[in-house]
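HUMAN: Quick job: go over this next protein and say how the chain folds.
***
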Amino acid sequence: MRASSTTLLAILLVSAILGGCLGGGNFVYSKGKVVKPGSEVVYPFKGPVTLNMDVSGNGPFTLLVVSSDGSKEIFKRTNVTRVKEKVELPEGSWKVIIRNEGESSLVLDISLRGE
């Protein structure tokens, strides 16, 4: 009986995590994400939503929030090692872009949450 309870608990935990990440939950969490020099990572979000961003790295990076087609920019920080901000995303599709414009690999801790 103990093994089946543990299995059920594990299934519920995995379901909750996947529901937040895959079900349009507007949530990203990544610890130790490596971004190579000259590369970027992109995370899509749907508005309207309040986006809480907490991103830190072991070197400078650029963080942008732009419309899905890139025509509108609503947030930009360059040459920073930490961003902890709230941004109101209007209706539509948006992208959070984190760029490593340096010459060495960057290790990032990323928490992006839509509320």
User: Anything to note?
Assistant: The chain is about 20% helix and 65% strand. Residues 12-24 have pLDDT under 50 and may be disordered. Helices lie at 2-22. Strands lie at 27-35, 40-67, 73-99, 106-114.
